[in-house]
TrEMBL record:
InterPro entries the UniProt entry points to: OMP_Chaperone_SurA, PPIase_dom_sf, PPIase_PpiC, PPIase_PpiC_CS, Trigger_fact/SurA_dom_sf
Segments forming domain PpiC: 174-274, 277-388
UniProt-recorded Gene Ontology molecular function terms: peptidyl-prolyl cis-trans isomerase activity
Gene3D superfamilies found in the cross-reference section: 3.10.50.40, Porin chaperone SurA, peptide-binding domain (1.10.4030.10)
Entry annotated with the keyword Lyase: no
Protein's organism: Aquirufa regiilacus
Keyword NAD applies: no
Name this protein carries in UniProt: Peptidylprolyl isomerase
Amino acid sequence: MKLKGYLLGFVMLCAGANAQAQEAEKGTLIDKIIAKVDNHFILKSEVEQQYSQYLTSGQANTPNRCQILEGLVVNKLMLAKAEIDSVIVDDKRIDGELSSRMDQMEAQYGSAKNIVEAYGKSIVNLKEDLRLSLKEQLTGRKMQEKITSDVKITPKEVSAFFARIPTDSLPYLPSEVEVGHIVRLAQPNKTQKAELVGRLMDYRRRIEKGESFEDLAKLYSEDLGSGKRGGDLGFSKRGQMVAPFEAAALKLKPNQLSDVVESEFGYHLIQLLAVRGQEYHARHILIRPDYQKLDLTEPTHFLDSLRIVIQRDSLTFDKAARAHSEDKLTQDAGGLMLDMASRSTRLPFDGTMEPGLYFSLDSMKVGTISTPIPYRTDDGRSAVRILYYKAKYAPHYANLKDDYQKIANIALTRKKNDAIEEWFLKAKEDVFIFIDDEYKGCNVLSGGVIDN
């Protein structure tokens, strides 16, 4: 049995749920349980759904149904072993992921109403489904990290791995680019800010007159994770929350309400519930501006002026990004964007690149800085950015000199897969695993997977 990298991932839950719902509407989905790992079930529809998604994605080396089932069994085994070994994902991490996913969906679909229409579910029901799937996803990921935490790769091993690749099998890599950006977020104007502050102050007065903080948080908080729990954030360690929130919370006495607190996430009304050593228990109501209505004039002027300073050699782009960019993912790297798959600053310059970035670079010369460009962040916020076209690399066959990090990442993934395979063969003895007769030929539990 060889566990491929794609077998260790989880399906994109939103797309999966929608695809399954569409098939059900057509009346073509005949479902049944085809595998069980302790208390975790695998449905035939899950295998078919993943198989269809791989086929439509157009990617090379599409896994067969047996390989997909094997991956699902490994994932479920990780969940079962996580329960046995008490590997737990903190609720705050799940809530944070849920909030981020919902923000991305709202940015993609335009509004909550459009999401409801697309998925045929209320936001409340969709969030519950997503939360359960996210909990499984994050638990499996944490278990996988535990299994492979000691797996490392040395330069000698990377060289040996590369030497084993036949010359005629070396991948031909497309053009790559290095590009940096400096991002400035649009901020609400005085009128918009006053409206947000006024809403929270109204909630504060209502609570002081006897209304329930919990009920108001459930109704109005835009923190999708804590909102359904009445704004309850549980106990937080000092330094865990963003600075403005924590500073305001720790100034309060138990049960006292804060004034309106502004942070990078929006505007908060905070109530401190308790302090326990280095931890504190708070709840909040969060509201955010309508990002689509924010004025881009100020960040555009700021970046236009900054661009002139950089072009005059009065300031390097690297230092300007570290000092002024509001994109935390790239700020500490001097604004350089990262390919999340390879962890490299060299991005494939092809159809996989985000279209807005691709067409901007296509009209620029290496070494130049763009004029300010409107930009939408991953969490849906309105912003403006300037781009720095640092370098371009010609298409070439993979080699150790130019592509060491990519090759090292592949070698490390293989080594981690070997560690998980070894773990699987031992761990499967600790849990009950059932495979339906229809899939017995896949040999999931006997050390080999046949083509299907």
